[in-house]
Specification:
The complex is a heterodimer of chains A (508) and B (329). With 508 residues, chain A is an alpha/beta fold. Chain A is built from 18 helices and 22 strands. In chain A, the strands form 5 sheets. In chain A, strands 6-7-8-3-9-10 form a 6-stranded mixed beta sheet, sandwiched between helices. Chain B has 15 helices and 4 strands. In chain B, α7 crosses α11. In chain B, the strands form 2 sheets. A two-stranded antiparallel sheet of chain B has the order 1-4. Chain B has a two-stranded antiparallel ribbon with strand order 2-3. Classes of the chains: A alpha/beta (508), B mainly alpha (329). The interface between A and B is medium-sized, with 36 and 28 residues.
């Protein structure tokens, strides 16, 4: 039988950076084809090509034997391709039935008929959800069922699941897998993206590994074991870009965290960090790394646990209190949370510590100018004028402005969440040396990164998180991506991980 | 090669940013200059000293309120209650002047306005409620309070308020006193917005509230403050209106919130927050005043004036956003 989908030599570049290069991917009817790879390996980009959301620069798309191009998401839907995104695309204030038939609603809605058709679809999936319920009132698992019913209502041939179980509890996840098996039996082709290898081995007929925008191989789960798969996902040459390790003397403990538990499900987090140390926080996206960072910075509430900062109890209820206790955060979302794009570089740089540049609430412009000039030199920020808006800078230089805030605030503990995301190689190296410099000055630095090579190149040790828990610590002698991934992912293989993050956040 | 193309891309982006800023900043100036030229060619009376001081005096209430509105809009909020709080200020000043001397009564009135603004501000800042709805509620409630206090009747300030009325109807340095008060308020705002920590943070919050919060700054405090300022200035506007007319009236300022918002928007402020300036807001107020004035001088009937006003607001916003609109098409 002809494959449902054939993607051949697909390439796509964003701003000169290859997100996909020469990727081949096929999907047969009645098959579950799993797609695995590290964050940023190109899985989602490939699926956005398949969903018609982006047009490839090169390559061909063949659907049911017919060479074609997809003009947009509507075109893909019309050809029977449905993508179920992690962030669900449902109208929360409409009913289940309305959501299922959204886009195909008749001008005059016959409610009885609509609801009964919706009920049939949901029954087919083996769930009991009222077609009249508001989607916003449903649990995440049930919302996902509505998404699947929506796909089924359109005579779907291909369904792409993008990390469907990341937000589900163990019970709901196994029910979802059953639905997928039933869909497969009815001849639907399924693309399944997940970080949970255990699940993939339960359900996949073939597994394709994405790495650095390429297809690193397609394997049969019967013949390739889990450790082999992990080896395919990693093993990139670690280049020499991590800057000179400066001799930092390890001093007294700055931060001590004991049994931290957060309302969003993060739990069992205990660690210490000393002056002069760079500690990595690794694990996959969604494993709770960012949540821990935000809690330490007072940006999100804490349910229980103790912290000590510089030997005194520390329980920040707002970032303001954290900053007063000399903690700084370089957030993950640079443009949304790190910088104020429309304000001048000068104003951004002094935002976290205005006392030295103001007198009785009035700015002392000359003094501010001098201080910012010093920061620009120290951090080697490339700019036209310090009065230009931050939006005029490149990504790497914007990130340096965020760093400059905490240099200026002279924070004792600085947490960097994905400090080099979207930053070019040159600026990356400079940011690494700045991080080393902080440590050499006796600051403590926590680095969160999805780039494992970055963690290994930079950190004195790496704390590994998985599904909301701190699962272990890697010391330099254990620095292998395989070990990190195993520590982070294998925990899910036990299947008794308890309530998962989002499930709890529902009640909160 | 890649480096040059990256530099070029950066360069054009920078130019675009500055281009957009140019339109926003000078759009208002262009409209203002065009209007003055048009008006003076239409009528010789327009540029007479008498007429100009007249426009300034007429707009003094709106002008004072628009300063508070500018601060609120900079934080991406809106304050619909200014007209009603002006009515409270107008009535309260007439009543309080009967029992208290001027230097006591007027701060009390401004304090009442600040409390009204503070109630809205607290609800917006701490409970994260939408400012549109909260200040709509305050608009209704404050109007009611003004009607209750005055029993629905205008109150003559009488002998007790003679000093206020004298102030409101006389001139200093050739300018009507209410206009002078407005100019002083604009100057204070100019300093506050551009030279102080408070002003910078108000702008920053409107641009990116989360980034400000994550810099360790109390966002709610600043949001509360702008509503307090807006309420206090609205009460001051009410005092100015009473000073001019010698009557405290509960019907003062009906619909003024819309003129005030129009003035701030014509001045190039963005309702999305973060963008707006004091001088441009002043020009926005003057543009509103001149439009009314020339149409009066030219004998355009009142109903038609409203249509023209609507058209001019649209033109102003079009010019300010011209660079974006041109880029899109």
């Amino acid at each position: 039988m002809a494959p449902l989908i054939e993607l051949e030599t697909i390439s796509k570049a964003f701003a000169g950076i290859h997100a996909l290069s020469g990727v081949n991917f096929t999907l047969n009817p009645g098959e579950v084809h799993a797609l695995v790879g590290e964050n940023g390996a190109g899985k989602s980009t490939l699926m956005r090509v398949l969903g018609g959301e982006i047009q490839p620069d090169e390559g061909t798309i063949t659907i049911a034997g017919e060479r074609t191009s997809l003009s947009g998401p509507t075109d893909a839907l019309r050809r029977g391709i449905s993508i179920i995104h992690q962030e669900m695309a449902l109208a929360r204030d409409l009913s289940v039935a309305e959501n299922i038939f959204l886009g195909a609603l008749p001008a005059r809605i016959g409610w009885r008929q609509l609801n009964s058709r919706a009920r049939t679809l949901i029954d087919r999936l083996g769930f009991r959800i009222s077609p009249r319920a508001l989607v916003g009132d449903l649990s995440v698992a049930h919302q996902q069922v509505v998404e699947i019913a929506k796909a089924l209502s359109r005579d779907v041939k291909v369904i792409v699941f993008d990390e469907p179980t990341a937000v589900l509890s163990t019970g709901d996840a196994s029910r979802l897998l059953q639905i997928i098996r039933d869909l497969r039996a009815s001849g639907v082709g399924i693309v399944y993206i997940s970080h949970r290898l255990q699940e993939i081995y339960e359900i996949a007929d073939r597994i394709s590994v994405m790495k650095d925008g390429r297809n690193a191989g397609t394997v049969d789960p019967g013949s390739t074991k889990m450790d082999g798969l992990i080896r395919m996902m990693v093993g990139r040459p670690i280049s020499q870009l991590f800057g000179e390790k400066q001799a930092a003397t390890i001093g007294e403990t700055i931060l001590k965290v004991e049994n931290l538990r957060l309302p969003n499900g993060v739990r069992n987090v205990s660690f210490e960090i000393r002056r002069g140390e760079i500690v990595g926080l690794g694990g996959l996206v969604g494993s709770g790394r960012t949540e821990v960072a935000r809690a330490i910075f007072g940006a999100d509430p804490i349910s229980s646990g103790q912290m000590q900062l510089n030997g005194r109890p520390y329980m920040p209820r707002s970032p303001r209190r954290a900053v007063r206790r000399s903690v700084g955060l370089v957030p993950e979302d640079r443009k949304g949370q790190g910088v104020i794009l429309d304000l001048p570089i000068r104003m951004n740089a002094t935002m976290a510590n205005m006392a030295p540049v103001t007198t009785a609430g009035f700015f002392r412009h000359r003094r501010e100018h001098k201080i910012v000039k010093g920061l620009i030199d120290t951090l080697r920020i490339k700019l036209g004028s310090m009065n230009d808006p931050v939006s005029s800078l490149s990504g790497g230089n914007q990130q340096k402005v965020v760093l400059a805030k905490w240099f200026h605030a002279d924070s004792d503990l600085i947490i960097l969440d994905e400090p080099t995301r979207g930053v070019d190689v040159g600026a990356k190296t400079e940011i690494y040396s700045l991080i080393h410099r902080l440590a050499a000055e006796g600051k403590a630095v926590i680095v969160i990164s999805s780039e494992h090579a970055e963690l290994f190149g930079l950190c004195d040790r790496v704390l590994v998180m998985g599904e909301g828990e701190l699962r272990g610590t890697l010391l330099p002698e254990d620095y292998q991506e395989e070990k990190l991934l195993t520590l982070s992912m294998m925990g899910s293989a036990t299947g008794n991980a308890g309530p998962r993050p989002t499930e709890q956040s529902h009640g909160a | 090669m890649t480096e040059t193309s990256a530099n070029m891309a950066e360069g054009t982006q920078k130019q675009r940013v500055q281009f957009a800023k140019l339109f926003r900043t000078f759009g208002t100036v262009v409209i203002f200059v065009l209007l003055v030229i048009m008006a003076s060619s239409q009528s010789d009376a327009f540029l007479s000293e008498r007429n100009i001081t007249n426009v300034l005096r007429q707009m003094s209430g709106i002008g004072v309120m628009s300063v508070g509105m500018l601060f609120v809009i900079l934080t991406a909020g809106i304050d619909l209650s200014v007209g009603s709080i002006a009515a409270v200020g107008s009535v309260a000043s007439a009543i309080l002047l009967k029992d208290y001397p001027l230097p006591v009564a007027l701060p009390m009135v401004i304090g009442i306005g600040a409390v009204c603004g503070g109630v809205s501000g607290a609800l917006v800042a701490f409970f994260r409620l939408p400012s549109f709805v909260i200040t709509l509620a305050m608009m209704t409630a404050a109007r009611g309070i003004a009607l209750i206090m005055s029993n629905g009747q205008p109150i003559m300030v009488g002998n007790a308020g003679q000093a206020l009325q004298n102030f409101g109807t006389s001139y200093t340095f050739g300018l009507p006193n209410p206009a002078l008060v407005m100019i002083v308020i604009f100057l204070l705002a100019l300093v506050a917005l551009n030279l102080t920590r408070f002003g910078r943070l108000v702008k920053a919050i409107g641009s990116n509230e989360e980034a400000v919060r994550l810099s360790g700054i109390s966002v709610p405090f600043h949001i509360l403050s702008v509503y307090v300022i807006s309420g206090a200035l609205a009460a001051l506007a009410g005092i100015l209106i009473t000073a001019r007319s010698g009557v405290g009236s509960p019907s003062v300022g009906v619909g003024n919130e819309l003129s005030v918002i129009a003035a701030v928007v014509i001045g190039g402020a963005s309702l999305m927050g973060g963008v707006g300036g004091v001088i441009n807001t002043f020009l926005g107020v003057m543009i509103l005043g001149i439009i009314g004035n020339i149409m009066n001088l030219a004998g355009v009937p009142g109903y038609h004036q409203q249509v023209y006003l609507g058209v001019i607001i649209v033109i102003a916003v079009l010019i300010q956003n011209a660079s974006q609109i041109l880029r899109r098409h």
